[in-house]
Fold beta-N-acetylhexosaminidase.
Amino acid sequence: MLRNASMTRRDAVISAGALAALALAGCSQEKAPAEQSNQGVVSDVPSTEPEDTPSAEPDGALQPDPEAPVSEVDEKVASMTLEQKVAQLFIVRPEAVTGVSVQTAAGDATRTALEQMPVGGICYFAANLLDTDQTREMLSNTMRYGEEISGLPMFLCVDEEGGTVSRVGGNPGFGVDNVGDMCDVGATGDTEYAYEVAKHIGTYLEYLGFNVDFAPDADIANNPNGTMGRRSFGATADVVAPMVAAQVRGFADGGVLCSAKHFPGIGGAAGDSHDGRIYSEKTLDEIRAEELRPFEAAIEEDVPFVMVGHLSVPNITGDNDPASMSSEIVTDLLRNDLGFQGLIITDSMGMGAATDSLPAERLGVEPLKAGVDIVLMPADLQAAYQGVLDAVASGELTEERIDESVRRIVKTKFERL
């Protein structure tokens, strides 16, 4: 009976997705409102300057090539200043760049802010996303400014897992149904269903202008008192791993890059890393047997990003440092043992587990020392950015280490955006 009910729900979700795609495709292309705040209106009227012709390129820009050779990547990295390279290491909320209360449009103020801090990407939340036309224009303008300023496309990101983590699905401005919790998807045992759900999400996100979705959740919900029960596909690796692999394929076919999260697996931890440190007492052998298997499945499917969580694993690392700041987890385990060659990104460095561990000026330095490529949403962008520059100036971080991550970022942008 559960199987039949689940399949009926599957048909309803996919049917709703097809209707939503048709609705999005038919939306008018009216101008979005000026950039707004729910605490007042902020003026950031889109620029009236004519757009560049297809042949016009900013100084030093390289035309993205789907088959970009390494030499082109190296040439681009060599052309960048240290400040430009360090800025590429951050993906942040739009407000962290512009300083407005809640950003809902991208115009001259956004362009000016990106000229001062050409970050690698922006992550948007429900408050930034009012409706289809407004979102498409905001993201299109932001991408155009980023390319004109840096010669690189921007990562335009969102958390869209479905269920309790959904910024577009279920938002009344978009006419797209929420696909529901991944625990229900996992309960069907149907990997094709998981694929279709991810492809549906990727399709509507790509239409809006997003190119990165921080999903799927690869955590195993094996703690009944944990916070991941509804977000995880299930309580065992046998359930979760094939669902994660299917969703990596689905997001790719839907047109967006995706990220398996939260390495090395926070589903068994008690507590919430938004509030403070979380711990697992498991050994390396124990997590190899379960928690790592969904990430291995994602890596086998060429997942573009892996997001490292803030889980402390003292029986593996020998200390209480969160995984996002641990070279034993990031470099030794994920990069070397599991062989992941894509982009390693932290979970939000504005969470309590991060801010309780480090002062603001170290929230970029310590993850980079551990081997992370991209620092996500530090509590204070300017402090974290300056902290990295200071670490390079002092020799604590080398420019070669910065180049290593920037090269991966540029390669991904040239080949996959």
Q: What stands out?
A: Residues 1-43, 45-64 have pLDDT under 50 and may be disordered. DSSP finds 17 helices and twelve strands in the chain. Residues 149 and 269 are 42 Å apart (CA to CA).
